[in-house]
Structure formats: structure tokens, C-alpha cells
Design a protein that fits this description.
By secondary structure, the protein is an alpha/beta fold. The protein is built from 8 helices and 12 strands. The chain has one domain: Alpha-Beta Complex (Spore Coat Polysaccharide Biosynthesis Protein SpsA, Chain A). The protein binds guanosine-5'-diphosphate (GDP) and manganese (II) ion. Guanosine-5'-diphosphate binds next to β2 and α4.
Amino acid sequence: PKAPPVAHYNLNNVTITSDPLGNRENILLLTPMARFYQQYWDNLLKLSYPHELITLGFILPKTKEGNAATTELQKQIAKTQKSGPEKDRFKSIIILRQDFDPPLQSQDEAERHKIQNQKIRRAAMAKARNSLLFTTLGPATSWVLWLDADVIETPSDLIQDLAAHNKPVIAPNCFQRFYNTEKKAMDERPYDFNNWQDSPTAVELAKKMGPDDILLEGYADMATYRALMAYMHKTDGLRQETVPLDGVGGAALLVKADVHRDGAMFPPFSFYHLIETEGFAKMAKRLGWQPFGLPNYKVYHYNE
Ligand code: GDP
Ligand code: MN
């Protein structure tokens, strides 16, 4: 009998460069998804990076809401991969269901942002991201693009634009469009406060905490005085301007696959008093990979 075939991958041949398009690098686009938004899918289809080089990975909770989102997602996948134009079709698509319990109950924006709900929520999110990452990262993956299911608008050259900086970890600035009742017109505001630079106050706060306590950003009763990238945005600023970051959010985040291969994941526990994506930034840093942000490069979060 013949020996079973062995697939050989030489990781040295998998390039991770500032010109992923020119070098035909594979992208793994990962999305934890509690709700399905059509605008998210439409935005994905508009990405100009060759879809045949993009693998999509999803993880959805086993809740009523998660079931509904899975059905919607599968409907759109069937449309795109089977009947849609060939150029729209992605290389492959993986859907995971979150099978650890208890599943998070559905929460509206106000509820999930309450400080006492954050530690449990963020830990569950971290585990969801880790499950998704560790089951989908392949030997041919060059870049991992994290994109939340409620990020509904990005530039179509997102992948090329972010990779061009050739940074181990890079985050665009996540904003939200809303109707400004004072101006009586559409307007936008910063949304993601997890992209930040550390402050002496936050360092001091952390020193006084118990081993399992975590520091959270964007809460008035826990003033950290960190420099938030959300507020570094300048209307006339250069889109390619970069700033070093100590914490990152997961709304939109491009990571060199080698950063994850080195072991950087999303701690579902207090890691230097940080959790999930912010803990990931710290872990990447400890592995020698400095995260960066693009204060003037915007993507948009859904407005619930
Ligand atoms: P926020 O924007 O910081 O308030 O966080 P979200 O609640 O939007 O969560 C971030 C991402 O994870 C979004 O893409 C959600 O759809 C998704 N998500 C939220 N809760 C869960 C969950 O329990 N399981 C999974 N798999 N995804 C979730
Ligand atoms: Mn969100």
C-alpha cells in the first residue's frame, strides 16, 4: 500500500510583505458574529483584494440570535459562492459554532457596555476569538484580518492599505455614523476606545489591583488618562499617519500571521490587568511585535 500523502509547507516560502497583492499572499479574514448585518456582507464583497486569496472564518454563538445569524450568513454565502459572479467568490469559508457555555445572553449596546458585565463578556469574546483563530490559521496564511460583524463600512482597499505599512499589528480608527439632532444632519463620532497608548495613571492603577482585576477603557469611574486613538483623528490628517499603540480593539485589525504563530492570542483572563484584544496587544509586545494604529484611516461601526 502507498504511504499517505504528506503536505509539505515551507513557512519560509510563505511571505508576509507590504505588497501582499504582488506576492499573492493568503488572507484569513476572521469574524466573531452574534448578529448578521447585510451591510457587513455587502462591504466584504466590495473588498478589492482578490477574493480567491481570502479565506473567511466565522464563529457564532449557539443562541436564538446566533442561530438566526447563521441562517442569514449561510444564505448569503450560498448566493456568493454558487450563483454569484466568479470574481466575488472567496477561496473557502469556515463557520464555527461556539460550543462552550454558558453562551452570552444577547445584550443591547447599553447593557453590554456596563462595567460589571465587561469582564465576563470580554472573557467569552476572547475564547470565541481564540477558538476561531486556532481552528482556521493554516500553513499558507500570511495575514489575519479581524473584522467585527458590525463593521459595515471600510475602504475597499482595506487589506492592501493596512498591509502596506508592513506592521506586525495595525488598527484603523473605528467610527460610527449617527444623526446629529443639533446639526440636523448626519455626523460621525469615535466608537472604539480600545486602541490606546498607556499612561502613568493606568500603570499606577494596575499596580494597586488584585491579580485577577482588569483595567477597562472608556468608563468614567475608572479614569485611566490613556491617550485614545479615537481622539487622535484629524480631519486634515494624513491617512497613512501611524502611531504606536499599547492596547488594540478587534473591530478591524490586521495581524501578521507570524504574530499569532508565535503564540499571541486573546487572553480570556487578566494578563497584565488586560483582557481580550487589549491583552493581545500586550502579548504581541512581549513577543517583540509592536502594534500600531492609523488615527486618520476610518472604518465604520453599525449604529444600533
Ligand atoms: P462592541 O462593539 O465592543 O460592543 O462588541 P460587540 O458586542 O459588537 O462584539 C464584537 C464582535 O463579536 C461583533 O462582531 C459581534 O457580532 C460578535 N459577538 C458578540 N457577542 C458574541 C458571542 O457571544 N459570540 C460570538 N461568537 N460572537 C459575538
Ligand atoms: Mn460592535
